Amino acid sequence: MPIIIASIIRHLLTLAAGSLITIGVSEGDASNLVSALEPIVGGAVLYAGSQVWSLRDKQAPRRK
């Protein structure tokens, strides 16, 4: 049960953070943030993919 409560709290904090950011950022600033985040998100996706690939490769049975 504590895992479920922690998950709910984490999601509520994420919702609150997103709401505060939305209130405090103007439309022009938001478009600049989006264009700056595209390469960062792309890099993060590639990094996560390589980590998953590495973990799956290590868990696969070794062939001799």
**What's the overall average pLDDT, rounded?**
83
Please give the number of β-strands: 0
Low confidence ranges: none
Q: Please tell me the total number of domains.
A: 1
Shape descriptor reads flat
Helices and strands: which structural class? mainly alpha
Query: What characterizes the major β-sheet?
Result: none
- The residue fraction in helices comes out at over 70%
Oligomer state of the chains in this structure: single chain
Give the distance, in angstroms, between the N- and C-terminal Cα atoms. Answer: 45 Å
Q: Please give the count of helices.
A: 2
**Radius of gyration computed on alpha carbons:** 19 Å
Strand content: under 5%
Description:
- This protein is mostly helical and 64 residues long.
- It has one domain.
- Helices cover 88% and strands 0% of the residues.
- The chain contains 2 helices and no strands.
- The longest helix has 33 residues, at 27-59.
- It is flat.
